[in-house]
Write a structure and sequence with these properties.
With about 290 residues, this protein is an all-alpha fold. Helix 3 runs antiparallel to helix 10, helix 7 packs parallel to helix 13 and helix 12 runs antiparallel to helix 13.
Length: about 290
């Protein structure tokens, strides 16, 4: 009995040590992300000269809302915001429609060469955007789309290899008996896709929507390449317009950074349950 008690106390002690080490690591990693964001928010309310004080002043002497007021007036903020929202909405819709259909074809339908074609789709993930940037620009230039938002929205309806892979892994993990039961009842493949698989794939679809939103919301190179009219600029370009060569406007840039980051954080916290569930289930099943 005494030996068992000693063994139990030792095991509890080691478990406590492991948990303590784990919490220390997690807290340290969390601080690595929280501290820069806190400094960004704090700096957005400071005077410009306070940004370069040594030692660093974490709390501003007086809160300056003028930085946000100047940021809203230095650029047509709400027009750029609306332009960004339109591009984001079309990209999310296009990604969900195209990627889910392609992923369903790769995971639930059997056709010759399916696995080989899927490997080719995955290989395209290796190519960086810089490799395909010039060919795509020349193609859209011949189509007459340069100077319009079409290159930034229409491409979403042709699928994204990473999103296709994510949804394919999720669809592959769904029980085949569900599809067979629907076929016995007379349902076609599209009806099985829409009424059986899509409702079950809500976590994975939410994950794809979040990824698509973050990619388009923060995209800078795409709008810079294809948008030539300043009335069609997005927020990512507008933030760069605040900064000039002689006067960088650091305080206003910090305020713009907070405005750009806030929607991403809000959406992630609202959808984190589905996001984590979609990532975990897509990774485990396959």
């Amino acid at each position: 009995m005494k030996k068992r008690k000693k063994q139990m106390t030792k095991s509890r002690f080691f478990q406590g040590v492991e948990l303590t080490i784990l919490y220390v690591i997690l807290i340290t990693m969390a601080l690595c992300f929280i501290v820069p964001f806190f400094w960004l928010v704090s700096s957005s309310f400071k005077y410009p000269y306070e940004l370069f004080e040594v030692p660093v002043r974490w709390i501003p002497r007086t809160i300056q809302f003028e930085n946000y007021q100047k940021m809203f007036t230095m650029i047509p903020f709400f027009q750029y915001l609306w332009n960004t929202v339109k591009i984001v909405i079309w990209n999310v819709i296009g990604s969900l429609i195209s990627c889910s259909l392609v992923a369903y074809g790769f995971s639930r339908l059997k056709w010759p060469g399916r696995d080989k074609v899927f490997v080719l789709v995955l290989i395209t993930m290796i190519l960086p955007f810089q490799v395909t940037m010039i060919p795509q620009f020349l193609m859209f230039q011949k189509l007459g789309w340069v100077g319009t938002p079409l290159p930034l929205t229409v491409t979403a309806f042709f699928g994204n290899p990473f999103y296709i892979f994510l949804l394919k892994q999720f669809f592959s993990g769904l029980p085949e008996e569900l599809s067979q039961a629907a076929r016995i009842d007379g349902a076609g493949e599209f009806r099985i896709f829409w009424q059986v698989c899509i409702p079950l794939a809500r976590p994975a679809m939410t994950t794809v929507a979040i990824f698509s939103f973050m990619r388009c919301w923060n995209d800078y190179i795409g709008p810079l390449l294809y948008l030539t009219n300043n009335k069609e600029y997005t927020l990512s370009i507008g933030v760069q317009l605040i900064r000039s060569t002689l006067d960088p406007k650091w305080a206003e840039l910090m305020a713009a950074g907070v405005v750009m980051v806030t929607p991403v954080l809000v959406i992630f916290f609202l959808m984190q349950k589905y996001f984590i569930q979609g990532i975990s289930m897509s990774g485990i099943k396959g």
